[in-house]
Amino acid sequence: MFVTQDDRTVRYVTAAQPVFEDLRQVAAQLAGLLVLAATGSKDASPHHPMLESAKLVCVQAIDGVNRVGALTSDHTRAHHRRLVDAGAALTDALGSADSWPIDVDAVLVPLRLAYAHLQNASQLLPGFQMVSFEQACCTIPNRSLSTSLPTR
Fold it and tell me: What is the reported pTM?
């Protein structure tokens, strides 16, 4: 059976879409944890279920990224590279989230990078949608989250 470039692209997109969603979910969970930490919530802790869930999903997503790498073609290689980079940045962010009290900036820098990689990936191929966070606290340029939120 002859497999065309378009067939390979469809196979890649189909396999990579759930992986992309998992990476996006990890970024959202980390952002939620940062909001809890930055607002001084008593629910924020190094053993928060959201952090543990994010770690598990991230490991599974990175495994998925590695699996879909075998399906890449000339049309999908750049997209896959962004997924690899997003996974690495999320791994860094999760590692920084383990320290307590949480260093918001240490988590936020790689989280922003991961989000940028995911956003870039979403523009490279169809089927990879991102929610716009242009007005979100994590997009405030040159200011840390901890200094940009109101204090109680």
Answer: 0.82
